[in-house]
Amino acid sequence: MESQQNLDSETKEESKGTVSGQEAEVSAEMARVETGTFWKLSGAAETIFYGLIILSLIGAVIAQVSVETGRTYWLAMIPIIGVAAIYIEWAKVRSGEVKWTTLIRMQFFHWGSLLVAVELVGMLSYFGRITNEAVGSMTLLLLAQTTFLVGVHRDWRFCVVALFQVLCLIVLTYLERYIWLMLVVAAAIITIGVYFHRRFPHPSSARHQGQ
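Below the sequence we write its predicted structure tokens.
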């Protein structure tokens, strides 16, 4: 009788050990999936920021060739950066921190106010208050300021994009012959960003791996 009881207890312990092992495997698999998802999202975000740097560089080159075309290009950059900001912030919607309607509304008013400001600058040019060349510069300045504010309140990498845009403005205004310098700066920003992204993983990824 005692041997039967001992056998039953051993069977139960083995069963518990098997279940615990299966739970551990499931947890490890979930951690791997979460880590992979994080790196996919993180890699996509990094690519977006590098793309914004490159687009800003292209805008600087275009603005040097044609003032009017440059102004149109900077105007077209407004919805592009707005969509990028929504994509980066969408992780908060998935985690339940922010409702998607709230996110869209905030970004709409943020970038919509910039469009209104740009149109007001156009009106000043139309009535002869400022020159046509100044319109393009002011449009870029307003774009950089608005992008910087997104970096302050949302993601600091937008501050890097904004500072690069300000540097483009300075070069276009005072150092037109050194436009090639922007290519060097853009390459340096992207190279450093890739290095730090690979060399120092995000804390979230480390947390997933430790679970």
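Residues 51-200 form one domain.
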